[in-house]
Amino acid sequence: MKDRNSYTEILMEVFQELLGEEDLEAALADSLSVLARALKGEVGIIWLLDQKAGKLVPLFQTGPVDLSNVSMEMGTNAESYVTQSGESVLVRDQTPDPRYTGTFLSEIGLTVKDMICVPLNRIDEIIGCLQIVNKKDASSFTEEEHRICRNFAALAALTIGEKGLEVHAGRKKEVLIRLLGVTKEFPGGEGVIRVLKGIDLDIYKGEFLVILGESGCGKSTLVNIIGGMDSLTEGSLLIEGKDFSHPKDTQLTEYRRDYMGFVFQSYNLMPNLTALENVQFIADIARNSIPPAEAIARVGLADRADYYPAALSGGQQQRVAIARSFVKQPHVIFADEPTAALDYQTSIEVLSVFEEIMQNHDTTVVMITHNPEIAKMANRVIRLQNGRIGDIKINLHPLHATELVW
Ligand SMILES: Nc1ncnc2c1ncn2[C@@H]1O[C@H](COP(=O)(O)OP(=O)(O)O)[C@@H](O)[C@H]1O
Ligand SMILES: [Mg+2]
Question: Are residues 343 and 271 in the same domain?
Answer without folding.
Answer: yes
